[in-house]
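Re-run with default settings, no changes from the original entry. Doing this only to confirm the output is reproducible before filing.
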Amino acid sequence: KINSIFYLNKMKYGFKNSYNFNAENIVYLKALLLFYSKVPKILGGNMNLAFKYANELKMISEIEGFLAFAHLAEVNNNFKEAKEQYLNATNSFDIINQDCNNLSLVDINRRNLLYELSYGQIKFGFVSNNTICMLQFLESSYSLSDSFPKKWLYLRLAKAFYFLGELDNYESYINKAMLIDPEFIEVKSFLNNLGE
């Protein structure tokens, strides 16, 4: 456990040094926000600092700010506020609201934005064809440099298709996820919750 504390401190100082070098870098701000919001207070977590970085994110990018505040609301078990922030993020994402083909314009460094948006849409029940569009774009352009495993992407696609009532596509993506990891606990949990 002492080693873990050492690495947490090392991680925190790495994020802070990167932030001090470039305070408007979205990746550094998000890393600091996640660190301070998820690490227990006794180990250096600090919700006031997390909110500070969320405000800075919102000044740089409105949509990133909405996603940051959605995350903080969830951490604080304020799910009504989280849903509202995810809706704000979805509504402010002009590229997809105009045309799914515009997703190729999304900066390679902001692919996680699509993944985060789809998370909120699925969790809070406002899945649409745009959700599918974002996830299938990530699937078709997936690379090993993406920060999310492909099996999770498949599970998210399965959930989205399930909520839209497209059961053939839902089953196809469940099978793809299970093909990668036959013991994928989250798929089994999802299926158990559905009563399958």
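The radius of gyration is 18 Å. DSSP finds eleven helices and no strands in the chain.
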